[in-house]
């Protein structure tokens, strides 16, 4: 019965996905181990339903906080059998940007990230676009604001009227926390450069009415946030999971990738931030906020209308960029065909004007479940599903709270997994006051439950957990690296804001990029990044949870299932 139930679920999944997402003959050829896989997935789903049925009826409140989401269908695509191009199917969902690997630089430290931000701000001539959860209020953050002011002033003095535009997107609730906050840090820029500076504050449509009145500051951030982190300066783009706060500039470990001289990618993220900004509250010089004329209000207006318009605005950006890139690909292919003919006729000098073929491809993956946009979720699940036997996936998150779907795929598929997560001491909530101080213990409990499931399925060799530990530091890195079977270097990485948890999938606005590369030097950079992070970790075993620091109080165990979808 378990296999039959799993097979039925698989048929439903394959009916939802376009048939060309699956390798030829997937369902008909009796794929080795498929029955066992379906049986394990079915058993897990049954146990999950049993566990969920025993939970408190308070869980029924959770769906009320999220709007119904329309199903997204993807255009047909194909999975190529060999090499990096096996991931070209992603371009049927999002634009594909082909670049040279020489344009990609992997950073390793918070200090390097901070210095790069300042240098890039000072060098900007046309645009500075920064999207983050919040801007901190310390001296380092003030220095960033001062850099912006100095650059804007120089731009005005040079031409009389500045061509430089600064657009900043933050979350409304997090950016408004406290008397001194992100808003008060940025108001001087708005007052001095009203024509050049725009500050947008995204407010989730799920925080409204009585809920908005009753939930206090800080706790209101659990309902939904603007969580995207992207920093671009002219044609240079930094993708990261780091916020604009002093901890992320000093001793909170994250990931950072710089894409240099990439105008198409910079244009895309500029348009994406503009689109979210258009459906966000606009900060005014007197610290009030207002919506742009003609826009639905996120918490005072009609929720369904707001979400539909936001969906349309963001999908316009994605689809128009896809169309542009497809046209560019066609033109480039035609030019190369002509260049090849000339080369054969006239010799090597004819090729000098041709742009070198890209060896690296960037795919922006967007997840905005409140707006019905689930691209990142679809791509991540497909990557986990399609990872072959003996492939290795290194997955890291600062907040280990995987969705049930991701857990099922990790435990039920064939690749080897090395999962890096934060030990309690390097969790960002360690030592926090009040209820927040118990959050690291809740993560320990979630980790222990997952490890128990790994052991129950006898998967300890295939799925291994490691805890990051570093004195005086906290851990905030997230993403994954994919190593194909037989390869010592990764050909794909995901980097950006998602944590692979319920919040990232269902509540917040998220964005990351898939970087696919054939270039060995860039693959080596990504491999070294992964090794450096995992070097500061220790293996998790049964004895890990016997340590005094891993003791979880009974009330935390009771409450965690009720609140795990909020952090």
From TrEMBL:
Q: Give the pathway listed in the UniProt entry for this protein.
A: Phospholipid metabolism; phosphatidylglycerol biosynthesis; phosphatidylglycerol from CDP-diacylglycerol: step 1/2
Q: What is the lineage of its organism?
A: Eukaryota, Metazoa, Chordata, Craniata, Vertebrata
Q: Which residues form the PLD phosphodiesterase domain?
A: 222-248
Stated role: Functions in the biosynthesis of the anionic phospholipids phosphatidylglycerol and cardiolipin.
What protein name does the entry list?
CDP-diacylglycerol--glycerol-3-phosphate 3-phosphatidyltransferase
* Matches recorded under CDD domains: PLDc_PGS1_euk_1, PLDc_PGS1_euk_2
Q: Which domain of life is it from?
A: Eukaryota
| Claim: Zinc is one of the keywords in the record | no
Q: Which reaction does it catalyse?
A: a CDP-1,2-diacyl-sn-glycerol + sn-glycerol 3-phosphate = a 1,2-diacyl-sn-glycero-3-phospho-(1'-sn-glycero-3'-phosphate) + CMP + H(+)
Name the family: Belongs to the CDP-alcohol phosphatidyltransferase class-II family.
Q: State its location(s).
A: Mitochondrion
Q: What class of enzyme is it?
A: transferase
Predominant place of localization = mitochondrion
One cellular component term (GO) for this entry is: mitochondrion
GO biological process: one example: cardiolipin biosynthetic process
> Signal peptide span per the entry?
none
Q: Which UniProt keywords apply?
A: ATP-binding, Lipid biosynthesis, Lipid metabolism, Mitochondrion, Nucleotide-binding, Phospholipid biosynthesis, Phospholipid metabolism, Repeat, Transferase
GO molecular function, one example? ATP binding
* Alphabetized InterPro entries for the sequence: PGS1, PLipase_D/transphosphatidylase
Species name: Rhinopomastus cyanomelas
User: Which Enzyme Commission number(s) are on file for it?
Assistant: 2.7.8.5
